[in-house]
Amino acid sequence: MAPETATVQTLNDMVEYQADAAVSKTLVKQKTGSVTLFAFDQGQDLSEHTAPFDALVYIFDGEAEIFIAGETFQVKQGEMIIMPAHKPHALKAVKKFKMMLTMIRS
């Protein structure tokens, strides 16, 4: 799935918070990578897992607690972090937050 036309958009308007839920919206999905937006309500999380490729997380609203290989990072609006390939990682919404996840597979 790739965009058919070019448009200017605001990330914050593209995904909405939902009570007691984590919501996702895929913007680009190719064999070589993907870009997905997420909105996590406070207290929601993504359980620990690993991926065979690096993933870049950009927080564009709120604040997240991100766990990577036993280390905890507080990542706030306007900040980003790279989750290295093959390292266990997890996310938790300390406050509700929105993020863009970019994964490059090649």
TrEMBL record:
Pfam family, one: Cupin_2
Domain of life: Bacteria
InterPro entries: Cupin_2, RmlC-like_jellyroll, RmlC_Cupin_sf
Residue ranges the record marks as coiled coil: none
Domain Cupin type-2: 38-104
Protein name: Cupin domain-containing protein
Natural source organism: candidate division CSSED10-310 bacterium
